[in-house]
Design a protein that fits this description.
5 strands, alpha+beta, 2 domains, 233 residues
């Protein structure tokens, strides 16, 4: 299961114990979802929603365990491995944002998507981040105004144009994401998924989320630091 901490690897809510790979933490009393116990999520995108920072952990829950809709809580949690996934999360965020732009941004209605934003999403060049953010927000405003003028009387058109606005907004948030702002990253991820949902309904949204879940899991696994090689005798 997945769990995030900040880069200091400390538990929150005045606990302040350090999470260490290979060690098991425990709490007394019965676990209660969102209130008491050690939490983790089966799906990595759910874990992102609760992330206080970019340090990702693969964990095992034991003892008394309670499962909820999007997370579980237990009296014991072993940290199997973990690392600072800042760069991986940024790359994933840019990848999903660019995918949403390419699928849902209609240049015939909204004009060309800002090239500086597109280039930032493609390359991750930090020197472009500020300009990319400004350009994307400007494009989002233009798309929203166009939707307001054109969508009257057309539910399908309104959904599609609203999706375009979400895409531009999400791209700006991806551009602004930083290691200290995983909450903003999570909101951006939701915006990209809302774009698919608005344009094509809940089935498309679920399919997009499933694909993004697999992609992020694969990227996190690939970015996992390799254990040091031991010298053979």
């Amino acid at each position: 299961m997945w769990h995030f901490t900040d880069t200091n690897k400390l538990l929150r809510y005045h606990d302040n114990r350090e999470v260490v790979a290979g060690e098991t933490l425990s709490v007394k009393g019965d676990p209660v979802l969102c209130e008491h116990g050690l939490h983790a999520c089966k799906n990595i995108l759910d874990a992102c929603n609760y992330a206080p920072g970019p340090y990702i952990w693969w964990v095992e829950l034991s003892g008394k365990v309670i499962h909820g809709d999007d997370k579980s809580v237990a009296t014991k949690r072993k940290a199997v491995w973990g690392y600072d996934a800042t760069n991986v999360l940024r790359e994933f965020a840019r990848t999903v944002a660019l995918e949403a732009v390419e699928k849902y941004w209609d240049e015939t209605k909204f004009g060309a998507f800002p090239e500086v934003t597109r280039k930032y999403l493609q390359t991750g060049d930090e020197s472009l981040r500020s300009a990319a953010e400004s350009a994307a927000w400007s494009a989002a405003g233009s798309a929203a105004r166009s939707a307001a003028r054109s969508a009257a009387g057309s539910a399908a058109g309104s959904a599609a144009w609203s999706a375009a606005g979400y895409v531009a907004g999400s791209a700006a948030q991806y551009a602004a994401w930083s290691a200290a702002g995983s909450t903003a990253w999570s909101a951006a991820g939701s915006a990209a998924q809302y774009a698919a949902w608005s344009a094509a309904g809940s089935t498309a949204w679920s399919a997009a989320r499933g694909a993004h879940e697999k992609l992020l899991s694969k990227m996190i696994q690939a970015g996992r630091p390799k254990p040091p090689k031991t010298k053979s005798s």
